[in-house]
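Here is an idea for our session: we take a single protein and study its fold together. Once you have written the record down, we can walk along the chain together.
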Amino acid sequence: MDSTEKSLHLLEKVSEFNQLYKHLTDHLLYDMGLSHSTINLIDLIGEDELTLKEITTKSRLDKSTVSRQMNAMVKKDLVTKTIGKDKRYVYFKLNEQAGKVFNDYHLQLEEKFKKILSGWTEEEAHMLTVLLGRFNRSMTNRLS
């Protein structure tokens, strides 16, 4: 197999993995009544109290998308929305429920991966981790 064939084969496997991972997370989030955006915003906000503009800047999403997502999170009681002293500014802070939801999502995802890897030896799982780490570093270096 020449290098072009190897690259194409690897690209197919990476694409297949990406689709399967997305399928897995889509179903998990659906079962939990969440979206990828919600989990990503919870992760992004963390312990901070941020304005809509700060969230927009950090997330690199447009203001209307962030506003819609944040308002949905307020309705789900994941975020507390407060108006600043200057009424033009609204601040968002995660509440305790958001932390629980985020942790529960990651625990369930971890359990699913444990089941997926249940037939693997410790050495095989370690090798995959090492190779994925190396692959990620190579991609990061090439993107810079």
